[in-house]
Specification:
With about 180 residues, the protein is α+β, with helices and mostly antiparallel strands. The chain has one domain. The protein has 3 helices and 4 strands.
Length: about 180
C-alpha cells in the first residue's frame, strides 16, 4: 500500500492557502489607503507649519505694545462657520481666500501693535496652495487676554476641509505690559 495525500487533504490545503492569500491581498488596499492618508497628513502638517509659525512669531514678538495688543479680534468674524456655505452646509468655494484674509488681518494687527521693526514674514505662504491645497485658518484673541488662539486645517480633497484634523496652538503676549 502506498502512502499519499487524499483528495480531501489536498483540497483542505488549497482552501487554507487561498484564505491566506486573500487576506494578504486585502491588506494591499488597506496599505494604499493608509499611504494616501499619510501623504495627506504630512502635506497638511507642512502647510500648517508654514502658516502658523509666522503667526506665532508675530503674536509673541517682544516689541508689541499692550495698549494695542489687548484689543480683541476674531478672523474670520464667525470663525469656522465662515468656511461653511449656510444654505448647503458644504465648504465654501474659496476657503483659501478666507484663510489668506485671516492671516493678513492678524499680521496687520500684530504689526500695528509693534514698536520698532517688525521682523516677521507677513505674506501668506501661497506656495502650497499652488499644489492644490485647500486650507482654513481661524485666529481668535479675546479682549484683554494675553493669549491668541490659532487653529488651522488643510487638505488636497475639495469639500473635505471640515473633516480634516485641526492644528491648534496658542501664542502668549511677550511684549512690555506697561506700553
Amino acid at each position: 500500500m502506498r502512502r499519499a495525500f487524499t483528495l480531501i487533504e489536498v483540497n483542505l490545503a488549497i482552501l487554507i492557502m487561498a484564505g491566506g492569500i486573500l487576506a494578504m491581498v486585502s491588506l494591499f488596499s488597506f496599505g494604499y489607503r493608509e499611504n494616501s492618508q499619510s501623504r495627506e497628513d504630512v502635506a497638511g502638517a507642512a502647510m500648517a507649519d508654514a502658516v502658523v509659525s509666522p503667526l506665532m512669531m508675530a503674536c509673541s514678538a517682544t516689541n508689541l505694545k499692550w495698549s494695542v495688543f489687548k484689543q480683541g479680534f476674531k478672523f474670520p468674524a464667525n470663525g469656522w462657520a465662515d468656511y461653511m456655505n449656510g444654505s448647503s452646509g458644504l465648504v465654501t468655494s474659496d476657503p483659501e481666500g478666507k484663510a489668506e484674509s485671516a492671516f493678513s488681518s492678524a499680521m496687520s494687527k500684530m504689526s500695528g501693535a509693534a514698536e520698532g521693526p517688525f521682523d516677521v514674514k507677513t505674506g501668506f505662504p501661497s506656495d502650497a496652495l499652488s499644489k492644490g491645497m485647500r486650507c482654513g485658518l481661524v485666529v481668535i484673541h479675546e479682549e484683554d487676554s494675553p493669549v491668541v488662539k490659532i487653529a488651522f486645517r488643510a487638505t488636497h480633497k475639495p469639500g473635505m476641509l471640515m473633516s480634516m484634523p485641526i492644528y491648534y496652538t496658542e501664542a502668549r503676549f511677550q511684549g512690555d505690559p506697561n506700553k
